Amino acid sequence: MIKLGGSLAGSPLLAHWLGAIAAGGGRAVLVPGGGGFADAVRDAQRRWRFGDAAAHRMALLAMEQYGLMLAAMEPRLSPAASRHGIRRVLAAGGVPVWLPSRMLIGRPDIPESWDVTSDSLAAWLAGELGAAGLLLVKSVPMAAGETLADLIRAGAVDSLLPRYLRRVPECRWIEASRHAELAHALAGGAAPGDVVRCGPPALADRAGTDCDAILA
Description:
The protein has 216 residues and is an alpha/beta fold. The protein has a single domain, classed as Acetylglutamate kinase-like (Carbamate kinase, 3-Layer(aba) Sandwich), CATH 3.40.1160.10. Helices cover 43% and strands 12% of the residues. The chain has helices spanning 14-22, 35-48, 52-73, 83-91, 101-104, 118-129, 148-153, 161-165, 179-186, 212-215; strands spanning 2-4, 30-32, 77-80, 95-98, 134-138, 171-175, 194-195. The strands form two sheets. Strands 2-1-5-6-7 form a five-stranded mixed β-sheet. It has a two-stranded parallel ribbon with strand order 3-4. Helix 1 (14-22) packs parallel to helix 9. The longest helix has 22 residues, at 52-73. The chain starts with a strand and ends with a helix.
């Protein structure tokens, strides 16, 4: 499972990432961020003061706008709005780009607020599909020794991410300039990026099972 940050929408590195991800046809699922499309929702909400429930649903559609753009840029990517659609694209050797609104609107386990971002939604989907792991592609690096708790405090990820990582075997973080690592990994090399941990390695071997304290 690969979550591609919306901040890359204006980056020259975007085409490199799409090429690397497309090479994982049949093995990778792409979750788009919200980026500038979600920022437009935030701006509208600040101006017109409508509620978070509507803003949440609009933000899901913002992810879909970015996803449709990505699929239009790279023909080996195909939009998919359901589990069946995702599996169908994978079976055909393609890379599904998740359009989340159909699967998420009205779900009681997904708060309709800005407390949950596309990072947590990607983790939720990874758990639903039984993915081997989640790769977060970000425009900024994760510092050596930085933990998930640190990333939450810095606002780099949302505070609910640990909840959705409980069902994900591994979460990794990769800065946008390291796109060649994904291509290498898909060719049989080492996993790309750096493991996201809740604390020191001796205390947290997996992001998904040792994050409960962050939510306490």
